[in-house]
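Q: Here's a chain of 269 amino acids. Please give me its 3D structure as tokens.
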Amino acid sequence: MKKIFSLALLALSLNAAELKMATTTSTDNTGLLDALKPLYEKQSGNTLKWVAVGTGAALKLGEDCNADVLFVHSPKAEKEFMQKGFGVERTAVMYNDFIVIAPKDLASKFKGKNLKESLELIKAEKITFISRGDKSGTDNKEKALWKKSIGEVPEKESWYQQSGQGMLASIKIAEEKNGVILTDRGTYIKYKDNEKNNPKLVIVNEGDDDLKNFYSVIAVNPKHCPQVDYKNASEFIQWLVSDETLKFIADFKLLNQALFIVDAKTRKE
């Protein structure tokens, strides 16, 4: 029995691959990928490695054939990527939502205001606002919200400052500058956990329909990039949206709060 088991392990190791994924800072910062990695590697025999950047940069890695699979959250940019023939098998996985957070001493200014009114207040009172400024999914969403609310992105205003950093780092910059920022809820929960559940920035806007944050997974198109590991990328996608893995994602919590809601079986776009 031991010999058979050893031979099975040897066969598995000989067929093992290194799957390269480009993903977003929010999936990385929350700890979800660190939790999924050992499960995938145990079941597949492969090694999963990823680089966490903004969605724009992740899609560019796919376009440039430097990743096998993408795990991202900017639907408009993803659809453009697919239309250009860079990706295949775009598959819904999960969502959380975006929230606006602000220093505790500013929170009362936002009380009773909806998202549009809050952004108008920031502009009127020139409250420091920290933008990712990195073409990430969060950055794309934030700029779309400004355009919808006030007709433009206030990029030339001195109070509108761009961090060029990932989500957790940008939250810390907002904290240091006593500023307001848009973040995904999952990363905010991670930030709260890091701050021993006593964060300096608190939620001032949530629940608006425009604040949903959808994540999808995409295999890089082997017709565009013949050298990519399409076989394992496709199998990874099927593993990610299997009932077992989706349950794991749904049950993944910090501070006893779920970070993501799975919608792989129900989302319609």
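Q: Can you summarize the key feature?
A: The domain at 2-95+214-262 is CATH 3.40.190.10 (D-Maltodextrin-Binding Protein; domain 2).
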